[in-house]
Specification:
The chain is 43% helix and 14% strand.
Length: 266
Amino acid sequence: MGNPGLILVIGASGKTGRAVSRALAARGVSVREGRRPDLDLETGHGVAEALDGVDAVYHLAPNMHPDEVSIAHRVATAALDAGVPRFVFHSVLHPDDSTMPHHWRKHLAEQRIRQLLPTSTIVRPAAYHENLLPAALEGRLTVPYSIDSPFTNVALDDVGEAAAVVLTEAGHEGADYDLVGPEVLSVRDMSRTATEVLGREVTAETMRVRDWADGPGAGLTEQARDDLLAMFASYDKEGLVGQSDDLACLLGRPATTWAGVVAKSR
Ligand SMILES: NC(=O)c1ccc[n+]([C@@H]2O[C@H](COP(=O)([O-])OP(=O)(O)OC[C@H]3O[C@@H](n4cnc5c(N)ncnc54)[C@H](OP(=O)(O)O)[C@@H]3O)[C@@H](O)[C@H]2O)c1
């Protein structure tokens, strides 16, 4: 694909989709935004139309969606039927960790996509730094797992840029990339770094899981709450750590640090 042409970004209104679209726009690439109501991933409404005439598709599933595997099947089948030359799937770091149901669904989705489209590319990002950024800026990181668990969180703009690279450049067919940040940090470490960068105190503390379920988790569906509770248990036990230089290789520069993310948001 010499000229990247037109790229469909599914979930374009979400935080990941916006980052991918931004990175593509910065490269001068035309983006078709796959979003409701024109496209509904649950019913399949508009999927074929969205794929019509595109040169590549970036597929991501709505967060914690119970039918992620059927959605992946639907989109990949439609891409195959439409003869879309390039397909990139947004997965997650360690998708085969079966203790976290939403990771395992991504593992099954990856398998389904690869069966249908063997040359598809899979990107597996760690948790985004931006998940904790608003709380850091408010001065208080409160999480329902150990603040000493290790993470290699990644900057969302780096994920968007890496996605743009694999969508627009040749040589990534059939590849899998773990997109992890350049440092291993606990939430306690992140609070210390944010304190230094912002020049004001940012605290870190663990909240009881029960308080999370009765508070921030109360408005979620039972399935989303259970998925997140399983994730918090896993984070409590071992954090979420990857070891890979895939991201820096794709970007052609070091990946962004947590200090860099906080500094940029000041
Ligand atoms: N957060 C992380 O740290 C992290 C790390 C690695 C991987 N991921 C994965 O990244 C993916 C995207 O996460 P996100 O945080 O960017 O999600 P998000 O901000 O919630 O965005 C989800 C997108 O999906 C769209 N959507 C929802 N239901 C839809 C439907 N039925 N049909 C069509 N579009 C629909 C939403 O559109 P509307 O505006 O219409 O609702 C939105 O554009 C998820 O699969 C998540 O597991 C996240």
